[in-house]
Give the backbone structure.
Amino acid sequence: MTSRMHTIHEVPARNRRMRTISAVLASVFLTLIFPPEAIQPARAQSEPYPSMAPLADYLMPRDAEIALARSAAPPSISNDATVMLLGPHGYTDSVAGTDGFVCLVERSWANTTDAPEFWNPKVRAPHCFNAAAAQSFVQIYLMKSRLVLAGKSKAEIAQAIAAALDRKELPPLAPGSMCYMMSKQQYLNDQGRNWYPHLMFFGAGDIAKSWGANLADSPVIATNDPQARVTTFMVLVDNWSDGTPASH
């Protein structure tokens, strides 16, 4: 569902943890920005996943993917959510829901096109989006997935998404958009692995300051995507979706 860095004030213990979180987020999530391709040769040589793996490496058995997608949120939410599954040509609604939420497992291309783990076949990031996010924010990722599975290059994917945003072929961010990422089984990248359970809230524009995000002792972490004009706010929570405690 990714290059989302932010400035952390220098407050010793708190900010060491915040810088660690920020470093993980830089290659994890997961809002979508699409900068021009500008990977330097030295970076290309060290890139661990230089090309897309065989499609089968990104796919999952149906029942396993449904269970993993639902694990993004507490059962009181995810049990009645629509579940979307990845297939050879993109995501499809495989389980109809009734509460307006949409759960799906994002793959590595939810990241930016210049991210080192853009093609990491191990990435499995369960999200459960509310109706507002599913109808707006998620549409970018769904389009990106179709482009990936159609065999488009990173540059072509970035250009196509940027053009769709400019032409308003993708819907604007809906007010109240948010999602749950509370799966103990999530694998966000090779460094963060399952990281922490958290909630994400999406707002139009660069609005981190209005939430007091990224400040000393603030529980709110924010990253801004100026090209998509979206700020993502992350709030860590104490428990995984199954109710077991998470160690922060």
The beta strands are 82-87, 90-95, 102-106, 125-129, 178-181, 198-204, 220-225, 230-236. Residues 12-32+55-236 form one domain.
